[in-house]
Amino acid sequence: MTILAIDFETANERRDSACAVGLAWIEGDRIVRRASRLIRPPELRFAPGNIRVHGIVPADVRSEPDFPSVMAEFLPDLTGGLILAHNAPFDMGVLRASLSAYGLPVPAFSYLCTLQIARQVFPDPAGCGLGKVAARLGIRFEHHDAGEDAFACAEIALAAMRQTGAEGVAGLTRVLPLQVTTLAPGPDLPRYRQPGRDSVAGRALFSARRASGPEDDRLRFAIRGSTGNRYEVSLEERPSGLYLRCSCQAGRNRRRCRHVDAVVDGDVTDLISRNFADVECLRRLIEAAPAGHRVEPVRVRRVQAA
Questions:
Q1: CA angle in degrees (0–180, nearest 5) for 253-255-258
Q2: CA distance 106 to 111
Q3: How far is residue 39's CA from residue 20's CA, in Å, rounded to a whole number?
Q4: Got the DSSP string for 96-125?
Q5: Where, by residue number, does the polypeptide cross the bilayer (predicted)?
Q6: What are the extents of the domains in the chain?
Q7: Among 60, 74, 165, 235, which is most exposed with the fewest C-beta within 10 angstroms?
Q8: Is the pLDDT score of 195 beyond 80?
């Protein structure tokens, strides 16, 4: 039986917004393989709180494969093995919700929660969060990196196995008052559909956006500057291409600024206006801009910034 630890990072509060996965395989008394992947979630809406935790921003995952593509190589081991996760209900929830979001069948999964294991084998008044348990056991890792977290989870399970004298990680259920949890297969749900050109609402939205001009500029973003000042990034469409204007000093001098970069990259950490859907709309407008439009020489094609 394959035994492996898994950890997901998510882009926002939705369980189907996985943006990274890490895995660590155990054979006998050691870790024999590790893997980590970035994932492009169904929508590039990253909550500031999530970004502060894992440091992943939309620009990091924009060109990465989606969940089904990333997980295809791992699903056989997951469905046929025993999964370890620290606070397993969260990670199992991400796994099931993400499969369902893409209309994929959700098979049965068997798992053990290393948080519950740690509370029994390594109790401490300070708590049994992943970082705290790892620190007490001398496990060195970079917390909130999915691959590193999966490694730490696996090491905690191995430490518990040695501490209790269990015969293998799976044998922990025979020496501790806990059992393997099996999630029953879930129903196939409709595939996640992102608002876009292929929907009536999407066509209407894009038509409205592209009809906007300097006199009716509907795409505006309020951004918090590094000193706490509020700046506005606004979109105009000119014959030469899309034009992003910022109200900061650099923008007034027609120079590229970090506020424009943040909006183009989809980094919503300092987005005061919280119009996350418009950030994704801007990305799609940039991608759909006619090939003959002027090419921005710095980072984004067919977009001017000032």
A1: 120
A2: 15
A3: 5
A4: HHHHHHTT--B--EEEEEHHHHHHHHS--T
A5: none
A6: 3-183, 200-305
A7: 165
A8: no
Q: Rounded to an integer, what distance in angstroms lies between the CA atom of residue 231 and that of residue 249?
A: 10
For residue 248, CA distances in Å to 84, 227, 237, 238, 257 come to: 49, 12, 20, 21, 8
Contact assessment for residue 119 and residue 36, using Cβ atoms and an 8 Å cutoff: no
Structure letter (DSSP) for residue 290: -
Looking only at the bridges linking them, the beta strands covering 18-27 and 30-38 are antiparallel
* pLDDT > 90? residue 35: yes
Q: Counting beta carbons within 10 angstroms of the beta carbon of residue 240, is it exposed (0 to 12), middle (13 to 18) or buried (19 or more)? A: exposed
Q: Which value, in Å, is the radius of gyration of the alpha carbons in the chain?
A: 23
Q: CA 259, 265, 269: angle at the middle one, nearest 5?
A: 60
Residue scoring higher pLDDT (32 or 272)? 32
Residue 86, burial from CB neighbour count under 10 angstroms (0-12, 13-18, 19+) = buried
CATH class of this structure's domain 3-183: alpha beta
Three-class secondary structure of residue 182 per DSSP? strand
CB distance 279 to 45 below 8 Å: yes
pLDDT tens profile 87-102: 999 999 999 999 999 9
- Give yes or no for a contact between 149 and 130, defined as CB atoms under 8 angstroms apart: yes
Strand partners, 9: 20
Tokens of 92: 């199992």
Quote the pTM value.
0.70
